[in-house]
Design goal:
Layout lengths: L2 H9 L6 H12 L5 H14 L3 H12 L15 E5 L7 H11 L4 E4 L10 H6 L10 H11 L1 E4 L7 H11 L7 H14 L4 E8 L8 H17 L3 E8 L7 E2 L1 H15 L2 H17 L6 H13 L2 H12 L18 E6 L4 E6 L1 H13 L13 E4 L6 E2 L4 E7 L2 H13 L1 E4 L9 E5 L1
Parallel strand pairs: 1-4, 2-3, 4-5
Antiparallel strand pairs: 5-13, 6-9, 7-11, 8-10, 8-12, 9-11
Helix pairs in contact: 1-3, 2-4, 4-9, 5-11, 5-12, 5-14, 9-10, 12-13, 15-16
Bound molecules: uracil.
Length: 434
Protein backbone atom coordinates (compact mmCIF):
# COMPACT_ATOMS: atom_id res chain seq x y z
CA UNK A 1 0.00 0.00 0.00
CA UNK A 2 1.22 3.53 -0.55
CA UNK A 3 -0.21 6.91 0.38
CA UNK A 4 -0.31 8.20 -3.19
CA UNK A 5 -2.75 5.43 -4.22
CA UNK A 6 -4.96 6.00 -1.18
CA UNK A 7 -5.16 9.74 -1.89
CA UNK A 8 -5.94 9.05 -5.55
CA UNK A 9 -8.67 6.55 -4.68
CA UNK A 10 -10.40 8.99 -2.34
CA UNK A 11 -9.87 11.91 -4.70
CA UNK A 12 -11.71 9.91 -7.39
CA UNK A 13 -14.61 9.18 -5.05
CA UNK A 14 -13.68 5.60 -4.08
CA UNK A 15 -14.62 3.87 -0.82
CA UNK A 16 -11.57 3.17 1.35
CA UNK A 17 -11.16 -0.20 3.04
CA UNK A 18 -10.57 -0.58 6.78
CA UNK A 19 -6.95 -1.51 6.02
CA UNK A 20 -6.41 1.61 3.95
CA UNK A 21 -7.84 3.83 6.69
CA UNK A 22 -5.70 2.12 9.35
CA UNK A 23 -2.66 2.54 7.11
CA UNK A 24 -3.23 6.31 6.79
CA UNK A 25 -3.78 6.89 10.51
CA UNK A 26 -0.92 4.67 11.68
CA UNK A 27 1.48 6.00 9.05
CA UNK A 28 0.75 9.62 9.90
CA UNK A 29 1.13 9.11 13.65
CA UNK A 30 4.45 7.28 13.13
CA UNK A 31 5.72 10.14 11.00
CA UNK A 32 5.96 7.94 7.88
CA UNK A 33 3.34 9.97 6.02
CA UNK A 34 4.32 13.63 5.66
CA UNK A 35 2.02 16.60 6.34
CA UNK A 36 1.71 17.44 2.62
CA UNK A 37 0.28 14.01 1.77
CA UNK A 38 -2.00 14.02 4.79
CA UNK A 39 -3.23 17.50 3.81
CA UNK A 40 -4.08 16.24 0.32
CA UNK A 41 -5.85 13.23 1.83
CA UNK A 42 -7.93 15.45 4.14
CA UNK A 43 -8.90 17.69 1.22
CA UNK A 44 -9.95 14.59 -0.78
CA UNK A 45 -12.12 13.48 2.17
CA UNK A 46 -13.54 16.99 2.41
CA UNK A 47 -14.71 16.93 -1.22
CA UNK A 48 -15.56 13.25 -1.70
CA UNK A 49 -16.83 12.59 1.84
CA UNK A 50 -16.80 9.26 3.69
CA UNK A 51 -19.71 6.91 4.19
CA UNK A 52 -20.75 5.75 7.66
CA UNK A 53 -18.56 2.63 7.56
CA UNK A 54 -15.47 4.61 6.58
CA UNK A 55 -16.22 7.23 9.27
CA UNK A 56 -16.57 4.54 11.94
CA UNK A 57 -13.28 2.96 10.79
CA UNK A 58 -11.55 6.33 10.88
CA UNK A 59 -12.93 6.99 14.38
CA UNK A 60 -11.73 3.60 15.65
CA UNK A 61 -8.29 3.93 14.05
CA UNK A 62 -7.85 7.37 15.63
CA UNK A 63 -9.16 6.30 19.05
CA UNK A 64 -6.71 3.36 19.07
CA UNK A 65 -3.76 5.45 17.87
CA UNK A 66 -2.70 5.87 21.52
CA UNK A 67 -3.72 4.74 24.97
CA UNK A 68 -7.36 3.97 25.70
CA UNK A 69 -8.15 5.46 29.11
CA UNK A 70 -9.82 3.36 31.73
CA UNK A 71 -11.83 5.61 34.02
CA UNK A 72 -13.01 2.79 36.25
CA UNK A 73 -10.84 4.23 39.04
CA UNK A 74 -13.17 7.23 39.15
CA UNK A 75 -15.85 6.89 41.78
CA UNK A 76 -19.19 7.62 40.13
CA UNK A 77 -20.48 7.88 36.57
CA UNK A 78 -18.39 10.08 34.30
CA UNK A 79 -20.28 12.22 31.86
CA UNK A 80 -18.73 14.37 29.19
CA UNK A 81 -19.89 17.06 26.81
CA UNK A 82 -18.34 18.17 23.56
CA UNK A 83 -19.29 20.90 21.14
CA UNK A 84 -18.75 20.80 17.40
CA UNK A 85 -17.27 24.27 17.69
CA UNK A 86 -18.64 27.76 17.79
CA UNK A 87 -17.87 31.40 18.36
CA UNK A 88 -17.98 32.62 21.96
CA UNK A 89 -18.68 29.08 23.15
CA UNK A 90 -17.47 29.03 26.75
CA UNK A 91 -20.09 26.45 27.76
CA UNK A 92 -17.67 23.92 29.29
CA UNK A 93 -16.35 26.53 31.72
CA UNK A 94 -19.88 27.09 33.03
CA UNK A 95 -21.60 23.74 32.66
CA UNK A 96 -18.65 21.73 34.02
CA UNK A 97 -18.67 23.36 37.48
CA UNK A 98 -22.49 23.32 37.56
CA UNK A 99 -22.88 19.59 36.93
CA UNK A 100 -19.99 18.84 39.28
CA UNK A 101 -21.61 20.90 42.04
CA UNK A 102 -24.81 18.93 41.40
CA UNK A 103 -22.98 15.64 42.01
CA UNK A 104 -21.76 14.73 38.49
CA UNK A 105 -18.20 13.84 37.48
CA UNK A 106 -16.62 15.54 34.50
CA UNK A 107 -13.47 14.06 33.02
CA UNK A 108 -13.04 16.36 30.05
CA UNK A 109 -10.52 16.16 27.25
CA UNK A 110 -10.79 19.44 25.37
CA UNK A 111 -9.31 20.87 22.23
CA UNK A 112 -7.68 24.08 21.08
CA UNK A 113 -9.16 26.66 18.74
CA UNK A 114 -9.98 25.37 15.28
CA UNK A 115 -10.48 27.63 12.27
CA UNK A 116 -12.64 30.57 13.33
CA UNK A 117 -13.83 28.76 16.48
CA UNK A 118 -12.26 28.97 19.93
CA UNK A 119 -11.07 26.05 22.06
CA UNK A 120 -11.53 25.42 25.78
CA UNK A 121 -7.85 24.64 26.31
CA UNK A 122 -6.73 28.02 24.91
CA UNK A 123 -9.36 29.77 27.05
CA UNK A 124 -8.23 28.05 30.24
CA UNK A 125 -4.59 28.73 29.45
CA UNK A 126 -5.39 32.44 29.48
CA UNK A 127 -5.59 32.09 33.30
CA UNK A 128 -1.98 32.59 34.45
CA UNK A 129 -0.41 29.29 35.55
CA UNK A 130 -3.32 27.10 34.44
CA UNK A 131 -1.91 23.76 33.34
CA UNK A 132 -3.82 21.63 30.83
CA UNK A 133 -1.16 19.02 30.05
CA UNK A 134 -2.11 16.72 32.91
CA UNK A 135 -0.73 13.20 33.08
CA UNK A 136 -3.38 10.50 33.00
CA UNK A 137 -2.79 9.85 36.73
CA UNK A 138 -3.22 13.56 37.60
CA UNK A 139 -6.34 13.72 35.43
CA UNK A 140 -8.03 10.78 37.19
CA UNK A 141 -6.83 11.92 40.60
CA UNK A 142 -8.25 15.42 40.07
CA UNK A 143 -11.64 14.08 38.96
CA UNK A 144 -11.76 11.94 42.11
CA UNK A 145 -10.72 14.82 44.38
CA UNK A 146 -12.56 17.77 42.83
CA UNK A 147 -15.23 16.09 40.68
CA UNK A 148 -13.88 17.69 37.52
CA UNK A 149 -10.70 18.02 35.45
CA UNK A 150 -10.12 19.54 32.01
CA UNK A 151 -7.07 18.39 30.11
CA UNK A 152 -5.66 18.88 26.63
CA UNK A 153 -4.93 15.74 24.71
CA UNK A 154 -1.89 14.17 26.30
CA UNK A 155 0.51 12.98 23.61
CA UNK A 156 -0.38 9.33 24.19
CA UNK A 157 -4.15 9.83 24.08
CA UNK A 158 -5.59 9.98 20.56
CA UNK A 159 -2.36 11.39 19.08
CA UNK A 160 -3.91 10.96 15.63
CA UNK A 161 -6.57 13.55 16.40
CA UNK A 162 -4.06 15.91 17.96
CA UNK A 163 -1.97 15.83 14.77
CA UNK A 164 -4.83 15.81 12.26
CA UNK A 165 -6.73 18.56 14.14
CA UNK A 166 -3.74 20.92 13.94
CA UNK A 167 -3.38 20.20 10.22
CA UNK A 168 -7.10 20.65 9.45
CA UNK A 169 -7.03 23.99 11.23
CA UNK A 170 -4.61 25.44 8.69
CA UNK A 171 -5.67 23.59 5.53
CA UNK A 172 -9.37 24.59 5.33
CA UNK A 173 -10.49 21.01 5.98
CA UNK A 174 -12.38 21.47 9.22
CA UNK A 175 -16.03 21.53 8.13
CA UNK A 176 -16.37 17.95 7.00
CA UNK A 177 -18.95 15.67 8.64
CA UNK A 178 -16.63 12.64 8.61
CA UNK A 179 -13.65 14.57 9.97
CA UNK A 180 -15.63 16.29 12.73
CA UNK A 181 -17.44 13.10 13.79
CA UNK A 182 -14.23 11.04 13.89
CA UNK A 183 -12.26 13.79 15.65
CA UNK A 184 -14.78 14.22 18.45
CA UNK A 185 -15.88 10.61 18.86
CA UNK A 186 -12.32 9.21 18.78
CA UNK A 187 -11.40 11.54 21.67
CA UNK A 188 -14.50 10.55 23.61
CA UNK A 189 -13.87 6.82 23.08
CA UNK A 190 -10.17 7.09 23.96
CA UNK A 191 -10.82 9.18 27.05
CA UNK A 192 -13.10 6.49 28.49
CA UNK A 193 -16.17 8.57 29.36
CA UNK A 194 -19.25 6.44 29.88
CA UNK A 195 -21.93 8.99 28.87
CA UNK A 196 -21.57 11.66 26.23
CA UNK A 197 -23.65 14.78 25.55
CA UNK A 198 -22.87 16.42 22.22
CA UNK A 199 -23.62 20.04 21.40
CA UNK A 200 -24.07 20.13 17.63
CA UNK A 201 -24.05 23.70 16.47
CA UNK A 202 -25.64 25.05 13.34
CA UNK A 203 -25.68 28.52 11.77
CA UNK A 204 -23.30 31.15 10.48
CA UNK A 205 -20.66 30.50 13.16
CA UNK A 206 -20.82 26.71 13.04
CA UNK A 207 -19.12 24.23 10.75
CA UNK A 208 -22.58 22.82 9.94
CA UNK A 209 -24.32 25.74 8.25
CA UNK A 210 -27.75 24.14 7.87
CA UNK A 211 -30.02 22.32 10.28
CA UNK A 212 -30.09 19.37 7.86
CA UNK A 213 -26.29 18.99 8.01
CA UNK A 214 -26.37 19.35 11.81
CA UNK A 215 -28.99 16.58 12.10
CA UNK A 216 -26.93 14.28 9.86
CA UNK A 217 -23.85 14.89 12.00
CA UNK A 218 -25.85 14.40 15.23
CA UNK A 219 -27.30 11.09 14.05
CA UNK A 220 -23.92 9.86 12.83
CA UNK A 221 -22.20 10.68 16.13
CA UNK A 222 -24.98 9.31 18.34
CA UNK A 223 -24.81 6.10 16.26
CA UNK A 224 -21.01 5.83 16.64
CA UNK A 225 -21.34 6.33 20.42
CA UNK A 226 -24.07 3.73 20.76
CA UNK A 227 -22.20 1.15 18.62
CA UNK A 228 -19.21 1.63 20.92
CA UNK A 229 -21.39 1.06 24.01
CA UNK A 230 -21.34 4.69 25.18
CA UNK A 231 -24.74 6.27 25.72
CA UNK A 232 -24.74 9.42 23.60
CA UNK A 233 -27.26 12.26 23.30
CA UNK A 234 -26.94 15.21 20.90
CA UNK A 235 -28.44 18.66 21.46
CA UNK A 236 -28.71 20.72 18.27
CA UNK A 237 -28.22 24.39 19.11
CA UNK A 238 -28.14 27.68 17.21
CA UNK A 239 -24.84 29.29 16.36
CA UNK A 240 -26.31 32.06 14.20
CA UNK A 241 -24.60 34.71 16.33
CA UNK A 242 -21.81 34.50 18.93
CA UNK A 243 -22.89 32.73 22.11
CA UNK A 244 -23.06 35.26 24.94
CA UNK A 245 -21.21 38.51 24.29
CA UNK A 246 -17.52 37.73 24.66
CA UNK A 247 -15.37 36.30 21.85
CA UNK A 248 -11.66 35.85 22.63
CA UNK A 249 -9.90 33.78 25.25
CA UNK A 250 -9.61 35.87 28.42
CA UNK A 251 -12.77 37.85 27.59
CA UNK A 252 -14.62 34.53 27.54
CA UNK A 253 -13.10 33.40 30.83
CA UNK A 254 -14.42 36.63 32.41
CA UNK A 255 -17.87 36.01 30.97
CA UNK A 256 -17.83 32.42 32.22
CA UNK A 257 -16.91 33.53 35.75
CA UNK A 258 -19.65 36.19 35.65
CA UNK A 259 -22.08 33.45 34.56
CA UNK A 260 -21.07 31.32 37.53
CA UNK A 261 -21.76 34.39 39.70
CA UNK A 262 -25.31 34.52 38.31
CA UNK A 263 -24.78 37.22 35.69
CA UNK A 264 -24.65 35.03 32.58
CA UNK A 265 -26.20 36.06 29.25
CA UNK A 266 -29.56 34.36 28.55
CA UNK A 267 -28.55 32.35 25.48
CA UNK A 268 -25.41 30.95 27.13
CA UNK A 269 -27.32 30.03 30.30
CA UNK A 270 -30.17 28.40 28.38
CA UNK A 271 -27.68 26.21 26.54
CA UNK A 272 -25.77 25.38 29.74
CA UNK A 273 -28.94 24.36 31.57
CA UNK A 274 -30.06 22.16 28.68
CA UNK A 275 -26.70 20.43 28.19
CA UNK A 276 -26.15 20.13 31.94
CA UNK A 277 -29.62 18.73 32.57
CA UNK A 278 -29.07 16.03 29.93
CA UNK A 279 -25.75 15.23 31.61
CA UNK A 280 -27.36 14.87 35.06
CA UNK A 281 -30.14 12.66 33.72
CA UNK A 282 -27.64 10.45 31.88
CA UNK A 283 -25.52 10.16 35.00
CA UNK A 284 -28.61 9.00 36.90
CA UNK A 285 -28.41 11.98 39.29
CA UNK A 286 -31.75 13.39 38.16
CA UNK A 287 -34.74 11.59 36.79
CA UNK A 288 -36.21 14.38 34.70
CA UNK A 289 -34.79 17.26 32.67
CA UNK A 290 -36.92 19.88 34.49
CA UNK A 291 -35.77 18.65 37.89
CA UNK A 292 -32.14 18.60 36.68
CA UNK A 293 -32.44 22.22 35.50
CA UNK A 294 -33.70 23.25 38.96
CA UNK A 295 -30.72 21.56 40.57
CA UNK A 296 -28.33 23.33 38.21
CA UNK A 297 -29.93 26.72 38.86
CA UNK A 298 -29.42 26.10 42.58
CA UNK A 299 -25.65 25.57 42.04
CA UNK A 300 -25.46 29.10 40.65
CA UNK A 301 -27.69 30.65 43.33
CA UNK A 302 -25.83 29.06 46.26
CA UNK A 303 -22.37 29.73 44.78
CA UNK A 304 -21.37 26.04 44.77
CA UNK A 305 -20.61 26.00 41.01
CA UNK A 306 -18.28 29.00 41.43
CA UNK A 307 -16.51 27.19 44.30
CA UNK A 308 -15.95 24.14 42.06
CA UNK A 309 -14.46 26.44 39.40
CA UNK A 310 -12.13 27.89 42.05
CA UNK A 311 -10.98 24.45 43.17
CA UNK A 312 -10.35 23.33 39.57
CA UNK A 313 -8.30 26.47 38.82
CA UNK A 314 -6.28 25.86 41.99
CA UNK A 315 -5.84 22.13 41.34
CA UNK A 316 -4.56 22.82 37.82
CA UNK A 317 -2.08 25.45 38.97
CA UNK A 318 -3.99 28.56 37.91
CA UNK A 319 -4.19 31.87 39.75
CA UNK A 320 -7.50 31.79 41.67
CA UNK A 321 -7.20 35.56 42.18
CA UNK A 322 -8.89 35.76 38.76
CA UNK A 323 -12.26 35.03 40.34
CA UNK A 324 -12.44 38.36 42.14
CA UNK A 325 -9.95 40.38 40.12
CA UNK A 326 -10.11 40.15 36.33
CA UNK A 327 -6.98 42.27 35.95
CA UNK A 328 -5.10 39.01 36.66
CA UNK A 329 -5.94 38.10 33.04
CA UNK A 330 -4.39 41.28 31.65
CA UNK A 331 -6.08 43.71 29.26
CA UNK A 332 -5.72 44.64 25.63
CA UNK A 333 -3.91 47.92 24.97
CA UNK A 334 -6.82 49.27 22.92
CA UNK A 335 -10.59 48.99 23.38
CA UNK A 336 -12.02 50.32 20.14
CA UNK A 337 -15.72 51.09 19.74
CA UNK A 338 -17.53 49.97 16.59
CA UNK A 339 -20.52 52.22 15.88
CA UNK A 340 -23.62 51.39 13.83
CA UNK A 341 -23.89 53.16 10.48
CA UNK A 342 -27.70 52.87 10.47
CA UNK A 343 -30.57 52.25 12.84
CA UNK A 344 -32.91 49.26 13.07
CA UNK A 345 -33.31 45.89 14.77
CA UNK A 346 -30.29 43.61 14.53
CA UNK A 347 -31.53 40.76 12.31
CA UNK A 348 -28.31 38.81 11.63
CA UNK A 349 -24.73 38.64 12.86
CA UNK A 350 -22.30 36.61 10.81
CA UNK A 351 -20.70 34.74 13.69
CA UNK A 352 -17.99 33.20 11.51
CA UNK A 353 -16.81 36.67 10.55
CA UNK A 354 -16.67 37.68 14.21
CA UNK A 355 -14.63 34.54 14.95
CA UNK A 356 -12.32 35.27 12.00
CA UNK A 357 -11.82 38.85 13.23
CA UNK A 358 -10.88 37.57 16.69
CA UNK A 359 -8.42 35.16 15.06
CA UNK A 360 -6.92 37.97 12.93
CA UNK A 361 -6.37 40.05 16.06
CA UNK A 362 -4.22 37.18 17.35
CA UNK A 363 -6.86 35.30 19.37
CA UNK A 364 -6.56 32.20 17.13
CA UNK A 365 -3.93 30.51 14.99
CA UNK A 366 -3.26 31.26 11.33
CA UNK A 367 -0.50 28.65 11.29
CA UNK A 368 -0.07 25.45 13.26
CA UNK A 369 2.59 26.70 15.66
CA UNK A 370 1.33 30.27 16.15
CA UNK A 371 1.13 31.60 19.71
CA UNK A 372 -2.16 33.01 20.91
CA UNK A 373 -2.68 36.52 22.23
CA UNK A 374 -5.11 35.77 25.05
CA UNK A 375 -6.40 39.27 25.76
CA UNK A 376 -7.63 40.24 22.30
CA UNK A 377 -11.14 39.66 20.99
CA UNK A 378 -14.53 41.17 20.28
CA UNK A 379 -17.20 42.09 22.80
CA UNK A 380 -20.68 42.08 21.25
CA UNK A 381 -22.92 44.75 22.73
CA UNK A 382 -25.86 44.42 20.35
CA UNK A 383 -27.28 41.02 19.51
CA UNK A 384 -30.13 39.75 17.32
CA UNK A 385 -33.41 41.43 18.28
CA UNK A 386 -31.78 44.50 19.89
CA UNK A 387 -32.77 47.93 18.59
CA UNK A 388 -29.85 50.09 17.49
CA UNK A 389 -29.73 53.82 16.72
CA UNK A 390 -27.22 55.09 14.18
CA UNK A 391 -23.89 55.67 15.98
CA UNK A 392 -24.73 53.36 18.89
CA UNK A 393 -21.78 51.22 19.90
CA UNK A 394 -22.59 47.70 18.66
CA UNK A 395 -19.29 45.99 19.53
CA UNK A 396 -15.90 46.61 21.12
CA UNK A 397 -12.65 45.44 19.59
CA UNK A 398 -10.02 44.51 22.18
CA UNK A 399 -6.73 44.73 20.33
CA UNK A 400 -3.05 45.45 20.77
CA UNK A 401 -3.22 48.64 18.67
CA UNK A 402 -5.68 51.06 17.12
CA UNK A 403 -4.40 50.04 13.66
CA UNK A 404 -5.21 46.36 14.17
CA UNK A 405 -8.70 47.31 15.43
CA UNK A 406 -9.30 49.59 12.43
CA UNK A 407 -8.17 46.84 10.08
CA UNK A 408 -11.15 44.67 11.07
CA UNK A 409 -13.73 47.37 11.84
CA UNK A 410 -15.37 47.14 8.40
CA UNK A 411 -15.61 43.37 8.65
CA UNK A 412 -17.41 43.65 11.98
CA UNK A 413 -19.79 46.25 10.55
CA UNK A 414 -20.43 44.10 7.48
CA UNK A 415 -21.26 41.10 9.63
CA UNK A 416 -24.30 42.92 11.07
CA UNK A 417 -27.64 43.13 9.25
CA UNK A 418 -30.56 45.32 10.34
CA UNK A 419 -34.30 45.23 9.80
CA UNK A 420 -37.00 47.85 10.23
CA UNK A 421 -39.29 45.13 11.67
CA UNK A 422 -39.00 43.95 15.25
CA UNK A 423 -37.14 40.62 15.42
CA UNK A 424 -38.10 37.96 17.93
CA UNK A 425 -35.15 36.05 19.24
CA UNK A 426 -36.26 32.46 19.87
CA UNK A 427 -34.70 29.68 21.90
CA UNK A 428 -31.09 28.73 21.26
CA UNK A 429 -32.07 25.02 21.38
CA UNK A 430 -33.34 23.42 18.17
CA UNK A 431 -33.73 19.75 19.12
CA UNK A 432 -32.36 16.83 21.11
CA UNK A 433 -31.44 13.58 19.35
CA UNK A 434 -31.25 10.42 21.46
N1 LIG B 1 -14.20 19.78 17.90
C1 LIG B 1 -13.35 18.74 17.74
O1 LIG B 1 -12.83 18.20 18.71
N2 LIG B 1 -13.08 18.33 16.50
C2 LIG B 1 -13.64 18.88 15.41
O2 LIG B 1 -13.36 18.44 14.33
C3 LIG B 1 -14.52 19.97 15.58
C4 LIG B 1 -14.79 20.40 16.84
Amino acid sequence: MNMYDVILKKRNGGELSTNEINYVVEGYVKGEIPDYQMSAFLMAVYFQKMNKRETVDLTMAMAHSGAMLDLSNINGVTVDKHSTGGVGDKTTLVVGPMITAAGGKLAKMSGRGLGHTGGTIDKLESIPGFKTDLSIEEFIDNVNKYGMAVAGQTSNLDPADKMIYALRDVTATVDSTALIASSIMSKKLASGTEKIVLDIKTGSGAFMKTEKEARELAELMVGIGKDAGRKTVAVISKMDQPLGRAVGNSLEVKEAIESLKGNGPDDLMELCYTLGANMLVMAGISKYIAEAKDRLEMTIRDGSALEIFRSVVKAQGGDTGVINDYSVLGEAAEIYQVKAKKSGYVSKINAKEIGMCSMLLGGGRKEKNDNIDFVVGIYILKKIGDYVEENDVIAEIHSESKESAKAIEDRILASYEFSAEKIERGSVIIDTIV
